[in-house]
Amino acid sequence: MLDRQLVEGWCDRLYTLRIPKELPQSLGPFQYKSLILYEGSPDYLEITLGSVLRDDQEEAGIMLDINYYLANAEAVSFENVSDWLENAHNNVEIAFEACITDKARELFGEKQ
Length: 112
Fold this sequence. Notes:
This protein is an alpha+beta fold. It is built from three helices and three strands.
């Protein structure tokens, strides 16, 4: 079973799981995926939040997967690939920091 506080405590900035009160409040495995388009750009960001089973099978862990894509490879010349990669990396870092909470940062051992 998935610990609801785990999801809400670590990744609640972008994703909030709301189950109608008429339904059982125990969460099973889930996966939420979103594509974020950048205006005026052929780039998009894919964010996936989901549960993963741990080896003990009694508790689920949380997976946050962030991918950045160039939808049209012809939009970036070979000479500009390095600049595109730097921009893509910056956008992935921004997305990661926006998704996690201070509780997650503590888990990773980061100082605030």
